[in-house]
Amino acid sequence: MVEVLAAETVETADLFTMGYWLTLLTFGVSAVGMFVGLACAVNGRRSVRFRPVWVAAAAVSIGGIGVWLASTVSLLGISIPGRILRYDISDLTLSLVFAVAAVFLGLLLAGREFEVKRMVNAAAGLGLGFGIMLWLQLTSIDIQGSVSVNIGLFVVAIVIVVTASSLCVFLFQRFRFPAARVGSIAMFGAGVAAVYFTGVAALEFRFDSDAEPAQGMELFGYAFPMFVLGLLALAVPITAVLVAPERPDDTPRAAKPGTSETGGPAGGNGSASPTDEQIRPAARPNAAAALAQRAQPLPEPAR
């Protein structure tokens, strides 16, 4: 229950008007969005030419479905007895844009492999984008009176979302076995639910009988069509993942100029200096090229 500040009496807002099943639905939507988004991110890490496309698909799945849609649907559970709540649709739609942009920027900053500096930059991008998204969602609510946000609780919500997102990216980059994937999905769903309830707890409603009636649209008329469109939109990245060609998770790296395949300096201790073909990185490393490289004769030992 969230306290609502009134002129004379303190009222309460119910967060579970539609039942506790809405919380489970929030977790399920977050998990599905994260699951599809991770599959797209894996293909984006393996691909070179289509990496931006895969990252964009992951951003829509994770940011648009897993974060924005899940938290927007959860707002349906808020009600205040005897009061009318309306929502600014333009703010809600703008929050969707920031949610998708935050994940897209975060995945690009995180890169293909784990690096501490990249992780910090990715966390900053995710925190900024999700913070704006959450602020727009909370301030989109309108009543007969005024709505304010407790800055302290709002900061706590931002800390939660940055921590949860960073841990998910860390697990995705550092560990690639199935249990780590499951852990990332579960942590993500729990983090979205925690951010939502913390953000709602930061709301402070002040009613004024002399103020204008609440302006905006009823949330159900907006959230339900977006829910249907969001789930239908997942069919596109799911199909792309299913038809994508199989690629190895780790692609071989070309040796740096002036070094041998073993990592030591070339040309020293009797080893042959690298040729131009060995220095030039292959655009598309494959099994045939690797076998051909192994088949090259070894240099004769110096006498």
UniProtKB/TrEMBL annotation:
Which UniProt keyword terms apply here? Membrane, Transmembrane, Transmembrane helix
Q: Does the keyword Signal apply?
A: no
* Low complexity: bias regions: 271-297
What's a Pfam family this protein contains?
Answer: MHYT
Q: Does the keyword Membrane apply?
A: yes
Highest taxon above the source species: Bacteria
Q: Which residues form the MHYT domain?
A: 18-206
According to the record, the residues making up region (Disordered) are: 247-303
The transmembrane segments are 20-42, 54-80, 92-110, 122-139, 151-172, 184-203, 223-244
Q: Which PANTHER family match?
A: DOMAIN SIGNALLING PROTEIN, PUTATIVE (AFU_ORTHOLOGUE AFUA_5G11310)-RELATED
Q: What is this protein called?
A: MHYT domain-containing protein
Name the species this protein comes from. Nocardia rhamnosiphila
